[in-house]
Amino acid sequence: MNIAPDDLIKYAQELSTPQDPALFSPKQYFMRSQASQNAIDKILDKDYSTCFLFFHESFRKSFREKMGLKLSKANPLKGYKFEIYEVRGKQVALALLPEGAPAAVRTLEEIQVLGFDKFISIGICGGLQDDCAIGDILLIDQAVRDEGTSMHYQAPSVFSYPHFGFTEFLNNTMTKSELGHKFGLCWTTDAPYRETKKKIAYWKKKITLGVEMECSALFSLAKFRGFAISSVLIVSDVLNQETWDPQFSSSSISSSLDQVIHFFSSNLDQIIDFES
Fold first, then answer.
1. pLDDT (average), residues 153-169
2. Contact 179/259 with Cβ under 8 angstroms?
3. Which of 28, 82, 32, 27 is nearest to 53 (CA)?
4. For the chain, percent of residues with pLDDT exceeding 70
5. Residues 104-116, mean pLDDT to the nearest whole number
6. What is the pLDDT of residues 166-219, one digit of tens each?
7. Which residues are bridge partners to 228 per DSSP?
8. Which residues sit opposite 234 in a β-bridge?
9. Residue 130 class from Cβ within 10 Å (0-12 exposed, 13-18 middle, 19+ buried)?
10. 67 and 26 Cβ atoms separated by less than 8 Å
11. Which of 8, 122, 190, 238 has the lowest CB atom count within 10 Å?
């Protein structure tokens, strides 16, 4: 078959669309990966509500220590860093995802088999705007799809979106709770070491708040599978066209994470009760 190089990506996309069925499902893999059918039955026999997703173990550890939740089951899933807590008879989880869109999506595909209806990802990003500061808290309302994973879940487009109603609910609740935050666009990339000056300048001009590696793919997966998702980011480094200012160990990040934990702890009942 003679295919011009410029047509290779288009050809690959046309070979299969997001509507085409896959040969096997994440549920099939999940069922095969667990220890026994008895273990699977015990895992699935729960009322799963909300799952918090993290990309850094230190963030998950802080949530675990400060949320004051009652542990229901530690690491119930073989092969995953995942804990379940019981709140008013419903299951709330803290899960660690690998960094980067392909690995994060694969892991979330398997976790979502349990039947959670809401996911909240909490990570870090590089700030792009002049008024961005280390420790700024961002709530994302759309993400630029500059990664390859989302094409398998969503038709070609520039943006993917979190669940509108759930994200709007979080935005309003954050405002009422006086949690200082910015609400807007992020840029998702597969290649952090290819955040070029031209790209930074372009997305900065488009009022993009930050750059990270997972949001657009997670949003596309959520839409495809039919669950709600929102994303909170904390600025850990600042980029402009000439300099990079990394401050990953800044106390401002720890302080902002504490504020985010306090917000979710104080409003957890409302979040659990939200129906998408």
1. 96
2. yes
3. 82
4. 89
5. 93
6. 999 999 999 999 999 999 999 999 999 999 999 999 999 999 999 999 999 999
7. 118
8. 124, 137
9. exposed
10. no
11. 8
Q: What's at 22, amino acid-wise? A: A
Buried (b) or exposed (e) across 149-177, using 16+ Cβ within 10 A?
bbbbbbeeeebbbbbeebbebbeebbeee
Domains and CATH numbers, the chain: 24-273 (3.40.50.1580)
Residue 194 has which token pair?
């290819």
Between CA 96 and CA 80 the distance in angstroms is 8
Which tokens go with 44?
A: 């699935």
State the pairing for strand pair 82-87/70-74: antiparallel
Largest CA distance in the chain: 61
Q: 186, 232 in Cβ contact below 8 A?
A: no
SS3 of the chain = CCCCHHHHHHHHHHHCCCCCCCCCCHHHHHHHHCCCHHHHHHHHCCCEEEEEEECCHHHHHHHHHHCCCEEEEECCCCCCCEEEEEECCEEEEEEECCCCHHHHHHHHHHHHHHCCCEEEEEEEEEECCCCCCCCCEEEEEEEEEECCHHHHCCCCCCEECCCHHHHHHHHHHHHHCCCCCEEEEEEEECCHHHCCHHHHHHHHHCCEEEEECCHHHHHHHHHHHCCEEEEEEEEEEEECCCCEEECCCCHHHHHHHHHHHHHHHHCHHHHHHCCC
